[in-house]
Amino acid sequence: MSKTIRIAPSILAADFASLGAAIQTVENGSMTKDLAILIGPSTKYLNTNEFLDLLTNNLSKKLN
Asked: What is the pTM (predicted TM-score) of this model?
């Protein structure tokens, strides 16, 4: 027996916006050390709090 799960469109929109903000942030060259290491040893990186602050700013811009 399967149940239908209903998700409000506003929740989906917020999820896609947050995913888009995360992708855009990394594509713009801002990332944490774990990703920067994959690119190369001289790649600049942010600490977790710096990355989350930037991600929050980018998400706010997308939602407003």
From this structure: 0.71
Who contacts 46 (Cβ-Cβ below 8 Å, separation ≥6)? 30, 31, 32, 54
CB 50 within 8 A of CB 32: no
CB within 8 Å of 24: residues ≥ 6 apart: 58
> What pLDDT sits at residue 46?
97
Q: What is the largest CA-CA distance in the chain?
A: 54
Phi and psi, residue 8, nearest 5°: -65, 135
* 14: enclosing H helix or E strand: helix 9-27
